[in-house]
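Dear colleague,

As promised, here are the two records you asked about, laid out in our usual form so they can be pasted straight into your sheet.

NAME FIELD: protein one
SEQUENCE, THEN STRUCTURE:
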Amino acid sequence: MFEHQPTARWSAVEDFLSAVVVRADNSLKRALTTALEAGMPPIEVAPNAGKLLKLLVQLSGARRVLEIGTLAGFSTIWMAQGLPDGGRLLSCEYLPEHARVARANVDAAGLGHLVEIRTGRALETLRGLADEDVEPFDFVFIDADKENNPHYLDWAIRLGRPGTAIVMDNMVWEGAVLDPALDPVTARGILSALHMLGQDPRLDGTVIQTVGTKGWDGFALARVL
């Protein structure tokens, strides 16, 4: 994102809440450490957002989860921890080196039997899932290249069912939704997805602004109608 630093109070409050309420376990801390060691950008969700994903998986009763954008598996682990017995999570990761790190982290968390990671361009993976006629997904988390957000959102609907919950990260992007010139390529994809969320008759959604260690941003939450 941009070279905007969150205020000290935002970060301090988030760190306090993460320590007192969220309480990420060692497998999640390991995922963060291995990501840094592998030279990955620190763009995974914050711990409080990861815990929210876990709770949303549980609250929605999801048994099948689709994730678009794996990175080191931080959000993958959170969501897999929320799955019931017999649940499954399929994650799409573009870079094989990232997928290898994520696979090791998921296995170290004891969740390997629940998680499949497919490498390659996500749009190709999603088309492949449609060709396989896979069982619909109950919950979809989108956190990948933002210029393809509208396409990912469309696939989330097509691979879901009525009632499928969709979460899409980075939907405010330091206010670039109001000033796309700040990041023309990324903002265009985010804006297209926002208009789709508001106008597509297949969806009902909202967007929540957030501040914290990831700066000024937000996430969308939608339901397939």
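NAME FIELD: protein two
SEQUENCE, THEN STRUCTURE:
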Amino acid sequence: MGSVRARAAAGATVVVALALIAAGTAVLLVLRDNLQNQAGLEAEVAAREVAAQIATGTAYDKLDLPDGDEHPVVVAADGGRVRAVGEDVRAVDGKRVGAAQGAGSVAPPAEDEDGEGDDRALKPGEVDDDVEHRDGTADVDGTVADYRFAVVEAKDTRGEQATVRAGAALAPEQDAVGSVRDAMLLGLPLLLVVVAGVTWLVTRRALRPVEGIRREMAAITASTDLSRRVPVPSSKDEIGRLARTTNETLAALESAVERQRRFVADASHELRSPIASLRTQLEVGVAHPELLDVPGAVEDTVRLQRLAADLLLLARLDAGERPGGARVDLAALVREESSQRVADRVPVRTGELVSAEVAGSRGQLGRVLGNLLDNAQRHAVASVRVAVVREGEWAVLRVEDDGPGVPESDRERIFERFVRLDDARARDDGGAGLGLAIARDVAVRHGGSLAVRTGSVFELRLPVA
């Protein structure tokens, strides 16, 4: 049962089998009940015909009794003494009855089918309206068979009460029920085979696109070619949606892998420059100690250290590191950062500082503020200004400089990794193009956003704790 098709076919077959068994049982019960009722009606008609003759005064030996093969009849007086018997009727319910008057006896019925006797006294010449039905056997000309008996009370014109018991054969009912049962038993396996086969074929056809998707995914895994896509069926059902979602996942995975490849390539490129410079200076220092540029080596080492720290932080963010839940006051964070920048090229001035607490990592949010101030310092002419305000449920931190601003077409591109708008600028004059990318990633992971609102205003929005 490892195949979906096999499980679907087996499940459908079991369900249909149970349904057919239940329906067949119900049909057989209803059919048997109807046929028994029909036999009881025939027996009642035969019994009432004989009872009517008795009520009109016909002598018992003159009664016109039906043929015993069709409706065995026994007429008994009070006390069970047999007064008349149908032709060839020898026994009823295993009790012998004679062919002549007084030749035997039968037990009179004591109560009807509901277990209640009929206490109403009949008048001479009356036939009881009530009738009792019961199943029994009768021996007619040596053949014992099952019958449905109807028992009717009657009183003749002399006031003598008699009990008429007439039967109708149940053999036709038994034959009919048996025939229907045999037909069901014969047709059920064939129908189940058809159901299993049809379910197998339908399921196979329905799952054919899934097999195509599986084969293509296996080929993509083997080839590592993420540009390939799985076939999308024309149907608008669940399988079609599965194929489209799979292709969307492959596209996202391809984009992520490509972004990771670019990241590794750019990181290698950025690391190569300070490492090469540092190695050159150290080699010169070994050969000519008097020519060793110690400040330059320290500067390259610091730059290499910062770049490694940036790459490490980006790796942690990409790995899904969640910020802490500490409360951070942005206004206090701005005051602390500004107090440490007294020696910057352009002084940092503070505007409105409204106390606004946010939930997150103090270290990461401080890194965002530092990166925004570093970016403003690189482009400012004579002024850098920072402010914190409240806008509803948002805390807004704005960093503004008086530089030329960011062109509108580049306001999203600057947040990409390793992007510098001035590619001709020396790397020593700026960063590696990771500061703004790190700042946006941290802002997003804190439930906020970072964007350029005007040419030189960077706005960080975070939900208030």
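A couple of things worth noting about protein two: Residues 100-104, 110-117, 423-429 have pLDDT under 50 and may be disordered. The helical segments are 4-55, 171-223, 238-287, 294-318, 330-339, 362-379, 435-445.

Best,
R.
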